[in-house]
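Section 5.1 Outputs to date
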Amino acid sequence: MEKFSLVVPDSVVGQLGSSVVLPCALSPSLNCKSFEVHWHGPNNKDNLVLLYKDLKVQEDTGDPRYRDRVSLIGELEKGNVSLKLENLTLADRGEYVCFVESHKWYEEASVFLNLPVIGSPPVLSLTESGEQVNVTCASGGWAPNTILTWRNQKGKKLRNSVDHYRTDSDRLVSVSSWLLFPPSESEWISCSVGLSDQEMKEGRVLPLKPASKPDSGSDPASTLEPGVSD
């Protein structure tokens, strides 16, 4: 009995409105024209996306949302059963399962399709720490990853931050960052979060200390400017 395994990447990144290939190949590279090939997803092994059976792709089967949008583009003679998915929408994001069955053996493997997801505007806060202020910036809900950048009012990057990234069960990324900053060095500082330099959301904070002791009943905390822009 000839056994085989499936080779797939952990994840693939696509762009909304475009097409993407989800790679899946047999190892060793067997001729699988007479095999059955199933693709399921996203995030639902019972949701059939494409079925190849009896030497052809079975039309009018599976989820109607994928009709005329999916195809097998690999050379089946060489064991390539990769799926091409066109006109990507955000609903296509998720885990897909490649299932291949011969007359005596079967295997399955999963690949995650990641699509850009714009997260929340950054939320900034600060506390005094001696002669400096401790500024925190947090944002969540990004995919496939995110970039966080601190700058002063002159546009210079501030590189002494401590950053923490977390990926949840939906593979959405959250980031939090903090840094110590002398208020005398800049009138304000900004925190920008995004997928790239062209897709940033920005927040600013004014780390100014009061010139004199505040009056009774006033708020001694530094002022936050909720300046958030897409």
